[in-house]
User: What shape does this take?
Amino acid sequence: MRLSSALAQRVALALVIGGTGACSGTPPLPSPLAAAPVERGSGCATSTVRIDFDFEEASASRCVIRGERSFAILIGPEHAPPINPSPWYAFRYRASGSADISVELDYLGAAHRYAPKLTAGGTVAPLSASVAADGMSATLSLPAGEGIVSGQELFGNDRYDALLDRLAALPAAERRTLGASLDGRLLSAVHIGDTKAPRLVVLIGRAHPPEITGALAMDAFLRALADEIAAGRVDTAATQFLILPLLNPDGVARGHWRANRGGVDLNRDWGNFSQPETRAVKNWLDRLPAGVRPVAMVDFHSTQHSLFYVQGADETTPAEEAFLAAWLGGKEKALPGYPFTIERRNANPGSGTSKNWFHATYGIPAYTYEAGDEADRAGIDAAAGKLARAFLSALPRPARVGGPASATGN
Ligand SMILES: [Zn+2]
Assistant: This one.
């Protein structure tokens, strides 16, 4: 098709110029988990303003000077379309003087999705944007001074490290490295509970880099889970947890829209296991002791509105339906600041989502927890805490002593 091929060319051009353009910025900041250099976006500077892409999660965009205090930023995906239309941008600016500066976000391959946020002085505030009628650009006015402008608040490797350390400090918990990404970043997980506990809960997050609200929901969910475990309200001799909150560390570090370093959507790779990130989880599951089997899986994401993708009505068992009713039933409008819907989706064979693979492989409830892009942050946080406690209560009861769980159907 003529239009899409022109678009692909435009994007390819942007990727090329973005990747090879002279970098006017300072060298990339070191990241404790970074093992390979990241091609950063191409910054630009006038005598009073500079724009850089010199930090983790910065987008691989290109800055264009239009005037002393006027700029355009070309925002392209990490590979040519088709790609999920979630154009991520994140850049740093420093502007002396007192007048505002103007920045036009020019999207290549998708329309404006994320309302801009300004991180400055330790706080994050929404910015208003004037979005073009066709959605392909948006113009921002930034105050003099300095800050980071991004599609969502940043949530990077350092914050994951701190989260994993907090979890690993729990009784019967430890950090595990499941593998390494293509860039050589560690796939860091926490395992909690007795390794012979018959029931395994798998919690996964951040397959998709821009999906920050899903990361915020998972963070709050895990804090509540940690509180329950610390208070002794979870029997970790009966239930163990594998928690991998950052499935795609390369995509996050590189400011991708969707894919990992291999250019693959990791939530379409379950079953193929062509990528080290998904393969690492599969390998870990394959080595589970006899008598241990997954009983539930939740994968945290973001989309336009808060929802849960769950199994279709004609592919679940009464036990799975009972779990769904106990966990989410009746809560759709009951959590202040966090209305959501429950979306039943039959497994599409070969779809490669974690939801469908875990359900098909283990016959367990396997859900996608999608937090809305612009969902109220306090609402996300409070709801995730309540949903974590409800999740623990809804898990199927442990088998009686002497009544071991059945072997996996893997
Ligand atoms: Zn997603």
